[in-house]
Amino acid sequence: MDRTQLADFLRSRRGVLQPADVGLPHGPRRRTPGLRREEVAMLSGMSTDYYARLEQGRGPAPSESVLKSIADGLGLSAQERDHLFGLAGRQAPSAPPREERVSPGLLRLLDLLRNSPAQVATLAAETLAQTPLSIALFGDEMAYDGLDRSLIHRWFTRSETRHVYPECDHTDLSRALTAQLRAAYSHQGPGGMAEEIVETLLETSAEFASFWRAHEINTYYDGYRKRVLHPELGLLDLDCQLLFGSGRWQGLLVLSAAPDSAAHRKLDVLSAATQHLTA
């Protein structure tokens, strides 16, 4: 159980809620934004003293039923709920044991997409497999050792990692990668690679530390866009689809471009060059 992070997370979630968000009257002027502890305790069906001790990093480890009540009281999303369980040292309802090998199903899909930029990666952003076109766009992300196996660690410690993306996108990417690492940290629990990355980055990157304190959790997308800078072809505006395997420990990321778009033509050029070099 990570008492410090659990307390910090609870305070942060309470602080962003307004009484109207949970069906409570606003009442008299409030000294600080967000709900009061007694309001969260009431919504969660527990004593104010017990909840206050959790926010202060004291008291016994909460049970699964208590955690579920708090998640309901705070109106947490499924991802935030799973994160709460992980911080309390409990197995989240939607978090089965981690798979150490590449999912066979995702690997078969990757093979079918060998002429597209695609890769399989873990929740901690360790790239496990890439198509040739993915390597042509991003470089060989499987060639790193130690914590650098994670793109998230490299993003905050190796400036050259950011050269693949326009500078104006760096802040949003930093936020997204930090949120992804927090999800991995929650799922893996103490002793995992994600915890080691977090501890290292908190000591070495002020930028990471500022985003980490925000407790942003949203990391899963039905679809989003990514702008990639290629040294010869320039900017490519790509659509991204992320398909998770069982348990969401590993995901298949596939990039594509709209037909007849500039990015589509650039991918065709890059694909032809990659196939020629492979041959």
TrEMBL record:
Provenance organism: Amycolatopsis jiangsuensis
Pfam family, one: HTH_31
The name this protein goes by in its record: Transcriptional regulator with XRE-family HTH domain
PANTHER family cross-referenced by the UniProt entry: BLL4672 PROTEIN, BLL4672 PROTEIN-RELATED
SUPFAM superfamilies documented for this protein: lambda repressor-like DNA-binding domains
CDD domains: HTH_XRE (cd00093)
Residue span, HTH cro/C1-type domain: 34-81
InterPro entries reported for this sequence: Cro/C1-type_HTH, Lambda_DNA-bd_dom_sf, MLTR_LBD
GO molecular function: DNA binding
